[in-house]
Amino acid sequence: MTKQQIRSKIKLRLKIQKEADRDRKSKIIKDKLLRTQIFRKAKTVMFYMAFGGEVETQDMIKAAIQLGKIVTVPVCRKNRVTLRPCILDEFTQLQRGPYGVCEPLTQRFVSPHSLDIVIVPGLAFDKKGNRLGRGKGCYDRFLKRLPKKIPTIGLAFDFQILPKIPAKTHDRNVDRVIFA
Questions:
Q1: How many CB atoms lie within 10 A of CB 45?
Q2: Which domains are assigned to the chain?
Q3: What is the DSSP string of 82-132?
Q4: Residue 14 has pLDDT above 80, yes or no
Q5: N- to C-terminal Cα separation, the chain
Q6: Cα 89–103–79 angle (5° rounding)?
Q7: For the chain, what is the mean pLDDT?
Q8: Is the entire prediction scored with pTM above 0.90?
Q9: Share above pLDDT 90 across residues of the chain, in percent, rounded to a whole number
Q10: Of 61, 108, 169, 171, which sits with the fewest C-beta atoms within 10 Å of its C-beta?
């Protein structure tokens, strides 16, 4: 299958997945993530703001804040099609960004080099960590600039794990995928 065929198929599966299943699996994924040594040691974590049926991150973000971690989420500028980590706390108001994803209204950016772990969305992943995003290349460009020592973890539902993802040289994979 081509990347576009995979995107269409997975977007449909995300759309038709029952909300109860999404919530149940997201909680399992949250519990798995919070138990990892990498997450427990991390002081500054970058999450994504879930949309379009993705693995829900809201409870993970709340848990990370309660654990005293500095939480950041990406802010994307449409004209630059690039991501910048921005601090999110319990008082941060959100607004819709250029692609419909919620972003902090007040933007307090941090350097990508200060991150201890990056939680990455994806429409599909394979066992090697290859990742298929939504096709804009925002995360590929961001991950390319990220120091190699900063671990990256993809979150996915079981049907988003495929035997093989077609990857090009500019595509960036993740170090690990947590799924349920």
A1: 25
A2: 3-179 (3.40.50.10420)
A3: EEEEEE--TT--EEE-TTS-EEESS--B--GGG-SEEEE--SEEETT--EE
A4: yes
A5: 23
A6: 145
A7: 94
A8: yes
A9: 80
A10: 169
Which tokens hold the place of 53? Answer: 């049926």
Q: CA-to-CA distance for 111 and 46, rounded, in angstroms?
A: 11
What are the start-end ranges of the E strands in the chain? 44-46, 70-77, 82-87, 94-96, 102-104, 117-120, 124-126, 131-132, 152-156, 161-162, 176-179
- The token pair at 75 is 């802010």
Distances (CA, A) of 129 to 88, 163, 167, 172, 176: 27, 11, 11, 9, 6
Measured in residues, the chain has a length of 180
pLDDT tens-place string over residues 27-67:
999 999 999 999 999 999 999 999 999 999 999 999 999 99
Could you tell me if residue 171 is left (phi over 0), alpha (psi between -120 and 50 degrees) or otherwise beta?
beta
Q: How many angstroms separate the Cα of 135 from the Cα of each of 17, 25, 65, 107, 165?
A: 22, 25, 30, 25, 13
Residues 6+ apart with CB under 8 A from 108: 86, 87
Cα dihedral 69, 108, 80, 51 sign: positive
Rounded distance, CA 109 to CA 84, Å? 7
